[in-house]
Amino acid sequence: MFNTWLTIANWNVMRAVPNQSRFLSIEKDFEANHADIWFLTETHEELAPDKGYSSHFSGDPDRESKVGERWSAVWSNWPLQELKGYACDSTRSVIGRIAESEFGEIILYGNVLPWNNDYRAKSSSSYQIYADALEVQKSDWKKIQHDFPNTILIVAGDFNQGLVDFHYYGSAKKHRLLESTLKECNLVVLTAGENDPIARDSCPARTSITSALLHRGIGGSKKQLVGQTSLYPTKHFRITLE
Prior knowledge:
Layout: E1 8-12, H1 21-32, E2 37-44, E3 54-57, E4 69-76, E5 81-82, E6 94-98, E7 106-112, H2 126-147, E8 152-158, H3 172-184, E9 188-189, H4 197-201, E10 212-216, E11 224-227, E12 238-241
Parallel strand pairs: 1-2, 7-8
Antiparallel strand pairs: 1-12, 2-4, 3-4, 5-6, 6-7, 8-10, 9-10, 11-12
Helix pairs in contact: 2-3
């Protein structure tokens, strides 16, 4: 039967590793919450949403890590091909290509952008570190759009910047830069402003700084759902989008 809606989930799982109670709790969450596509950040190669899903991971992390840890991962209900040569920062970004699905060809771009006290380029300001990393990812997005003009592009991950009217994380300057960059790349944020389900549903108010979902080639979304309303098993909320 044809599935009318594409279901996408995005979650920063905060470095959960096998045999931890948090790892097991996240696996149970996967079992209870289906999604066609999963984007995971600060994740582990063994943390799989479903045994039958295809996956690709970013490269070795640029920080001290345990075996199997990765900054970014994409998981798909459809066969997933690695799209090599399109991620300039392969330590924190990963790209996968779904060649065939009910929705056509889909490219998945999973990412992590610098947080406020990121250690990258310590001589630079927090803003400049963010701007430099965003510029690199922008070049990736534009190259994908140029080479795959008729393909759905979904970008999701940990953007480390709120996109709501009130301040929660990041800065107003980064907010403006991120918005203008996404607009330049024709990427529409499906979880910003009043459509941010975490800002809408959580108390105290939080925002989806770790779960922005972007798209090109998708007509819109039916609903945005917040998963995990406590700070366990991670302090980052899971977002599911249909």
